[in-house]
Structures are given as C-alpha cells and as structure tokens.
C-alpha cells in the first residue's frame, strides 16, 4: 500500500538539522569548492518557516539557510521507489541558487531541482549516482513563480514531473539499495558558473510550501500528523483549479483526490519497473 511516510515540518528539530551538512567540506559553514558564497547559519529565521533566506555579510560571505535530515533525531532517508512531491516559489534575485537534493556518505546525490534566475525558465534535474541530466525549459518556470514537482526515485529510472507533466525519465535510476538524506537550501553563486549577486542586493529568498514523501509500505508516517500537507494555502497559491489546490496545479497530486491517486500509482509503478507511460491529463473533477 502506498502511503505518506514523511511530511516536512521545517520547524521540527527532530526532523531537520539547520546550518550544517557533510555535503559541505568539514560540515560547513562554507563551500568554496562548489563556488558558493554561503556561510551556513542555524538561525531559525533563515529556514525554519519554510522560507529559505540569504543575507549579505560585511565580510563578503552570505548567511544562508539550509536544512537536512542528516544528523536529526528522526534521521529520515528517501529510498529507491519513493515518491517526493513538493511545491515551491522560485527566487527572483540574480545569484540565488535554490535546490532540493539528497546526500549520504559523500555522494548518493539526486537533485530534485536546481535553479538560477539568470536562466529564468530553466530547471536543472540531475542524477549524480548513475549520471544523467536534463535542462528543462518551461513557461511555468520563472523568477518568483510557484512550481509543483514530483520525483519518482526509481531503482532503474528516476522520473521528474513538473506541474503534473513528466519532463524527464533518465532510464538509469540509482539501484535498489539506494537511500539518502534530504537537503533543502538556498545557496549564493560566487560567479564562476552563474553571476554573483548584483551590487546593492543584500537579501534573497525562496519558499517551500510543502514537501512530502510517499512509499509502498505499511510503516507509520514520519513527521506531521499524516492528515495533510504542510503549507497548503500559502501565499502565492492563486485561485486553484476549483478543488482547493494552490495555483494552477490540479489536486490529483494531493492525498484525498481518488482520481489522482489511481493515476499516480499507475505511473509510479510503471516508473519503478522501468516503463515509460504517458503523463495523465488534468483531473476534471472537484474534491474527491
């Protein structure tokens, strides 16, 4: 049975550790190796509300928000076969570098997405485990836009969907034994790969409205109360599709819409088996 096993509560210190990660040299706080100006901070105002912020420091670094499940009391990890679903608002400022990604033991990295506002309509989707990458351009991707995304971490193929439409299936996967911690953060570019922040820009932010993980399992959910998703109805949601879902995205992705659950299960099972299936059409019904 597929069920929600993780609902992000960014304020929960049992779920998330703030301001450090072994994905950075020595656990942080800086990462010049990847050409970042980040100086990670555990100040809750930089991440715990779901708004991930970065502010310029007098020494040239940027205090930046990062949360990870690595090292937390719950120590939640995504596994092969899991489905991650998230809704986020992209930053507007040049130099911003938001990402949702995975990490464990010096690797096991899969990027749900990376974004740079200088490439305004482009998301970077990458499997670093068995290398595969796609740069996806879409009119729904823009500075300040809300984006809905789903990723199936298939053992034989990682499948990315954007606003209900499949945009990349890598045909590679990560293997059946793969597992990794989650990281959500806002980095700041130092200028080698993408422009650094413009003079006079001292603050930037991106927001995660919700993040959940679903799994074919009977084990109880980790985090949250299991009855809904964090951040539904956050500002920027728009008018919805007539069934209460924020923005233009159809509620078929939300637990509670039976049409969507059936369609989603069929597509995800096909992805786990390495088969390609057509993306479902939008749900035309109201609340399930």
Describe this structure in words.
It is a single chain. The protein has 288 residues and is mainly beta. It is built from 1 helix and 16 strands. It has a 16-stranded mixed β-sheet that branches. Strand 8 (96-103) and strand 9 form a beta hairpin. The longest helix has 15 residues, at 258-272. The radius of gyration is 18 Å and the shape is globular.
In short:
The chain is mainly beta. It has 1 helix and 16 strands. The chain is globular and about 50 Å long.
Q: What is the rounded distance between the termini?
A: 19 Å
Silhouette: globular
The count of DSSP E runs of length 2 or more, i.e. the number of strands, is 16
Structural class: mainly beta
The helix content is under 10%
- Ranges where pLDDT stays below 50 over 5 or more residues in a row are 224-263, 276-288
Largest sheet: 16 strands, mixed
Strand content: 35-45%
H/E topology pattern: EEEEEEEEEEEEEEEEH
Please report the number of helical segments.
1
Mean pLDDT: 84
- Rounded to an integer, what's the Rg over CA atoms? 18 Å
